[in-house]
Design goal:
This protein has 22 helices and 14 strands. It is an alpha/beta fold. The chain has 4 domains: 113 residues, Beta-Lactamase; 201 residues, P-loop containing nucleotide triphosphate hydrolases (Rossmann fold, 3-Layer(aba) Sandwich); 66 residues, Helicase, Ruva Protein, domain 3; 92 residues, Arc Repressor Mutant, subunit A. The strands form 4 sheets. It has a 5-stranded antiparallel beta sheet with strand order 2-1-5-4-3, with helices on both faces. A 5-stranded parallel beta sheet has the order 7-8-11-6-12. A two-stranded antiparallel sheet has the order 9-10. Helix 7 runs parallel beside helix 8. It is elongated. The two termini are 39 Å apart.
């Protein structure tokens, strides 16, 4: 049953309680509801607005700028659109707006608009860009090479899969094609990116990097594309990172974390070769080589509609996969020896190597932090070891030793034995470790003999087992599973494992 205009009175208390601004406009463009939060955003008392024409509130609004007008004319829904406008009182606003038409018998009888004020975030954006500009100028003064100081010679290892990745990266250096580098945290994705730039024809131009997971999308938009004076409160004319990297290379680190609405804007820039600053109207031509990195499966993100497949195809012209350290066999001991030599020079010591039991630990350990974790492990040991000694078990960090505690080792062995057994017979009907009812079922009641279904079910079992061992603590479970917390949260969402369900058993 479609909701009528008069039914909105039932939601007045709800609309007043939420922190977002809410406005309801009828088919004659008369404002029928306007909550206090919206009044704070626009600078009106609700009594000044209710019963008045929406068109009088935003006199400079055009069809292209508005979300309400298209909702009436085209029955168009708008989700999370960034808007900047000036009210009749002369107040400049920056909002994220969602607009939904209410349809009865094929006609739009009302439009509901929900807004969030991001003026503070916009001001923060300006401050961040200012600060970044200062940092960049200081970096340029300190070194002609800037921050791009890695070369292929800095990549340590002799593993065939690693050497194949290096070969592909070197070949890609000779073109301007976009590159996507995938690998776990700590595998050296930025080293690869910088090495590609330093071997390319763009080596004398800027290498600019941005972590897509470090800032909210509302801020990221202005940082990437730049801002225009008057585009929002406190904005000035500033070049974004695309303009800064023009004729050079732009690294989009953790591209998998980028919000969908920003993905669409990025795709337009890449396809058309121009950028338009936030609040601006002028297209600025670009010549930028894009290198992206991801620490999780892009196929999973696409399948779950967290990442646009058209953007993925655009970014992954050259696809480079860096193997994790645990899969690189003898490289583990080779890299350990490399860092012992390096820190012998740094600390003026003469550590001769590692003991046999440490070698065994290193080969069995999962290395969730990969080469970066190995480097920190050796550095930590070199700080406490005596001159002329070998690194022993007692010199290792607690994070590694705890992995081999009796409980943890037993859990890991059992988990992977169970995994192997179930992969062998493709049995997906195993009960959840929680065994508490239908919410905790992770497998279908109908047997599925596909390998994909089996592995998905077993991955979910491992996640549930880790959450059980961690007593519901997601961060601790992520450590147990050797994955980043955001990755675990993503997989929990994918498999329908919610905090609400887990909270039945454990307090978070």
């Amino acid at each position: 049953m479609v909701m009528s205009m008069f039914d909105f009175k039932n939601f007045v208390d709800v609309f007043e309680a939420i922190h977002e601004g809410v406005m309801v406009v009828d088919s004659n463009y008369i404002v029928r509801f306007y909550n206090n939060t919206m009044g704070i955003i626009d600078g009106y008392d609700p009594s000044e607005v209710i019963g008045k024409s929406y068109l009088d509130l935003v006199p400079e609004s055009t069809y292209e700028m508005s979300t309400i007008l298209p909702a009436f004319k085209e029955k168009r829904r708008t989700i999370n659109k960034v808007q900047s406008y000036v009210t009749a009182k002369g107040r400049s606003n920056s909002l994220i707006t969602s607009t939904v038409p209410i349809i009865e018998e094929g006609k739009v009888v009302a439009v509901v608009e929900i807004c969030k004020d991001i003026s503070v975030e916009r001001k923060l954006l300006s401050d961040i860009i200012d600060m970044q500009s200062v940092i960049n100028k200081q970096s340029e003064k300190k070194s002609d090479a800037g921050i791009c100081h890695y070369h292929f010679s800095d990549i340590i290892g002799r593993d065939p899969a690693l050497l194949e990745a290096v070969k592909i990266a070197k070949n890609a250096s000779q073109s301007n094609s976009f590159v996507l580098i995938s690998g776990e945290t700590g595998t050296g994705k930025e080293i690869f990116a910088q090495s590609i730039h330093n071997l390319s024809s763009r080596r004398d131009k800027k290498f600019v990097a941005i972590n897509c997971a470090a800032l909210p999308s509302e801020l990221m938009e202005g940082i990437l594309f730049g801002t225009t004076r008057g585009g929002f409160t406190g904005s000035t004319d500033r070049a974004g990172l695309f303009e800064e990297a023009n004729h050079g290379t732009l690294l989009l680190d953790e591209i998998n974390s980028m919000e969908p609405f920003l993905q669409g804007k990025l795709l337009r820039v890449l396809q058309e070769g121009v950028v338009r600053r936030v609040g601006g109207t002028r297209d600025i031509p670009l010549d930028v080589r894009i290198i992206s990195t991801t620490n999780s499966s892009m196929q999973d993100a696409i399948r779950e509609k967290h990442f646009r497949n058209d953007l993925y195809y655009r970014l992954s012209v050259v696809d480079i996969a860096i193997p994790p350290l645990r899969a690189r066999g003898s490289d583990i001991l080779y890299i350990a020896s490399h860092y012992i030599s390096e820190f012998n020079r740094v600390f003026s010591k003469n550590v001769t190597g590692i003991s046999d039991d440490v070698k065994e630990i290193f080969m069995k350990y999962r290395w969730p932090g990969n080469v970066r974790e190995m480097k920190h492990c050796i550095e930590g040991a070199m700080n406490v070891i005596e001159h002329g000694s070998v690194i022993q078990k007692k010199h290792l960090p607690k994070s590694i030793l705890s992995f081999f505690s009796s409980s943890s080792e037993n859990r890991t062995t059992q988990t992977f034995e169970h995994l192997a057994e179930n992969l062998a017979d493709h049995d997906t009907s195993v009960q959840s470790p929680f065994r508490q009812g239908p919410e905790s079922q992770y497998a279908s009641n109908t047997p599925d003999n596909s390998l994909k279904s089996a592995t998905d079910s077993l991955e979910k079992q491992m996640i549930l087992s880790a959450l059980e061992e961690a007593k519901g603590n997601v961060s601790q479970a992520a450590v147990i599973l050797n994955m980043k917390r955001p990755t675990l949260q993503y997989k929990m969402k994918r498999y329908g494992i919610s905090k609400a369900n887990l909270n039945v058993f454990y307090k978070f």
